[in-house]
Amino acid sequence: MSVALEFACWWSASVVVWLASLSAFSGHDLLVAVVCGLPSAAVALAARRAIGGAWRPPVAVLGWLLVLPWSLAVDTVRVLSLPWRPHARNTGGFGEVPLGPTGDTAEAAGRRAAASLLISSTPGGYVVAMDAERGTGLLHRLGPPSLLERRVVA
Q1: Which residues pair with 138 in a beta bridge?
Q2: Cα–Cα distance between 142 and 95 in angstroms, integer?
Q3: How many Å from the N-terminal Cα to the C-terminal Cα in the chain?
C-alpha cells in the first residue's frame, strides 16, 4: 500500500472517530476534525511503520459487522440490568478464547486484531491480552458469550 493511501486511510479513520464522539456537530466541528485528523494520521502511520505491523483482516469481518449492532444492543441491556438480576452477577469472569490462527503473518495478525477489536467493542466483553503463538486471547466477559463472540470464535 502506498504511503499516501495509508495516510488517507488513517486520516479518514481519525475523522470518523472524532465525529462519532460528538453528540452534535457543526461545520466548525467538521473543520476541526479534518485538521486534527492530519497529525493523528501522521502519528498512526509512523507508529505502524515503527512496529512493523501488517494486518489483513479476513473477509469474515463483514459478517461480524452485520451482527455487531445486535450484540451491542443485547449486551447493553444485559450489562445495565445486572443490578436487578442478583443471580446473574457472578456469571462473568476471565476465560481464554480462540481468536485466529497462530503466527505473525498479515492474515493471522489481521484476524486476531479484528476479532479482538470487535469483541471488545461490546459492553459484555473485553479482550485483555492476546497470545500470537497459540492464537488465543484472554477475555473478560460479563455473562454468557454474545452472538458476536460466538461468530468470531467459531
Answers
A1: 96, 129
A2: 11
A3: 30
